[in-house]
Amino acid sequence: METLLILVLALSFDALLGEPRRLHPLVGFGRYAGWVEGGIRIADFSAPTMRALGAAALTAAILPWTAFAWLAGEWSESSAWVRILFSAFVLYLAIGWRSLLDHARRVAAPLRRHDADAARRSLSMIVSRDTAGLSEEEIASAATESALENGNDAIFAAIFWFLVAGIPGVVLYRLSNTLDAMWGYKNARYVNFGWAAARLDDVLNWIPARLTAFSYACCGAMDSALQCWRAQGAHWKSPNAGPVMAAGAGALRVRLGGAATYHGSLQQRPLLGCGDAASAQSIEGACALINRALALWTATVALGACALWLWGAV
Fold first, then answer.
1. CA 25, 151, 108, 237: dihedral to nearest 10 degrees?
2. What is the DSSP string of 152-208?
3. Which of 111, 197, 250, 251 has its CB 3.0 to 4.6 Å from that of 179, i.e. a possible disulfide?
């Protein structure tokens, strides 16, 4: 029951407060990670050496904070309510439910008014692709993809690692995911140095991504979601984003994927989903799908807590 209470409190904090506007721990961690990179990456070496340096930087960036989270958790054991509130607060900082929905809806709202310029400006805040010149359908597709993928990264994977490994688990996951966003690019600067960060994030996201994909299928058009997952998910460049977005697109019966431009380079990406073209409605549908999946996860945790309580009472 304590785990359920922590989850409900964390989600309530996020719904009421949103992300901290000032002094967000992840912003501070990003600065710290930049300092670590600057201290370890003193020159460009061969690919194996750069991978080794990247792994060392990953360890130096993550291990102290994960250890600190474990020590703080041990300290909180002195009081049940201190432990619950501390755990709920850390989990709240690790998830981005309200922020994800707010950013997606800021793209959908101007699209409904056919204000493509405003929609592009909002979209540029949440995607790494080039947004200038995108059509309304392309804007909607990009925003829907982002919402579905980040449903896993910003919500469900964090909850999964909290359920599996408590506060140290969720801290380890969130920091590794942040480093993947910072160092996981396949460009000349990070293709080797960021290799370890990208691989760790892939490993930590493998199970949560598939649980998220299955949750999207359960909360939408299941037949098409499962079919798109099987047929399309493995062809995406990311082993975890592919299943999530393919299942989500199928659940919404919307067409996503296709060509996109990143930093001036056109990439031909596989098609995802089926059915209608992306629109403002598909963005809002993705937000609703995420909310239904989150309700499913919360209900599952509640049922598990009740089952364990009854088992202990027998």
1. 100
2. IIIIIHHHHHHHHHHHHHHHHHHHHHHHHHHH---STTTTTTTHHHHHHHHHHHHHH
3. 197
Total of domains in the chain: 1
Confidence of residue 295 (pLDDT cuts 50, 70, 90): very high
User: Token pair for residue 206?
Assistant: 């493998």
**CA 102 to centroid of chain Cα atoms:** 15
For residues 298-313, give the mean pLDDT. Answer: 85
Strands (E), 1-126: none
Question: pLDDT per residue over 197-249, tens digit each?
Answer: 999 999 999 999 999 999 999 999 999 999 999 999 999 989 999 999 999 99
Range of the domain at 101: 1-313
pLDDT (average), residues 1-20: 93
Q: How far apart are the C-alpha atoms of 292 and 137, rounded to whole Å? A: 25
* Inter-CA distances, 98 with 17, 25, 62, 173, 197, Å: 9, 17, 26, 19, 26
- Residue reference for tokens 């807590």: 305
